[in-house]
Amino acid sequence: MTDCNAQPMLFSNLGRRRVQADFDGGTLTSDAGALLLREANQRIGLIDAINQVIPDPRHPDRTRHTQRSMLAQRIISLALGYEDLNDQQTLRHDPLLQTTADRTPDETPDRAAEPQHPLASPPTLCRLENRVSRETLMKIAAVFIDPFIASFSSPPEEPLILDFDATDDPTHGQQEGHVFHGYYDHPPWRISCRCMCSAVTSGSCRTCDRPTSMPPSMLGPS
């Protein structure tokens, strides 16, 4: 059994200064880059713009997590590489992620006795994602156009070139949309991106059972 030592270790002084090793480092994080993402979002207002085009049918008096807070939690987590909703069972208690979602303990007076107010749970985030309709997805895609146009101080002199590209995102086990693809030699989701001047202006994700960019001879059994 591991014997954890929480007592500080004292070393020889350096002049009048005490040299001490303290193992009580407090709450630490390895995802400090999330703060830079928060600053970037505050400049361009991307999360707020996405929030405005997603309808929220919930009753305001019966909700603990605002839609804007959940969007910030999910989007920042994805940018940090936490794409699985199960990660949120732990990340929802991370003070740094709470900061990027603009969530502070004072926002829920009915739970003021608790030291921390966790962010949304994986099931709550799952319900948010599942109620986004195809029509809303089209509105979200349009949100990316305005920041792209605003990135130019003046109209570009050269023609703008649209680049349509696709890549694969492997599925695991019997995940929804699990269909084998002969070209990629595994069952993937198909990610399509529309780029202009190296900037992603929109994207989509779909199953590979009806691919349109590969000839039938390259497809495996579905």
Question: Please, could you describe this protein's structure?
Answer:
- By secondary structure, the protein is of the alpha+beta class.
- Among the domains are: 33-107 and 116-132, no CATH class; 161-217, no CATH class.
- 31% of the residues lie in helices and 17% in strands.
- The protein has helices at 33-44, 46-53, 67-79, 88-91, 95-100, 122-130, 134-143, 145-150, and strands at 9-14, 17-21, 162-170, 188-196, 199-207.
- A 3-stranded antiparallel sheet has the order 3-4-5, with no helix packed on it. Strands 1-2 form a two-stranded antiparallel sheet.
- The chain is extended.
Helix and strand arrangement:
Layout: E1 9-14, E2 17-21, H1 33-44, H2 46-53, H3 67-79, H4 88-91, H5 95-100, H6 122-130, H7 134-143, H8 145-150, E3 162-170, E4 188-196, E5 199-207
Helix pairs in contact: 2-3, 2-7
Short summary:
The protein has 222 residues and is of the alpha+beta class. It has eight helices and five strands, in the order ββααααααααβββ. The protein has a three-stranded antiparallel beta sheet, with no helix packed on it.
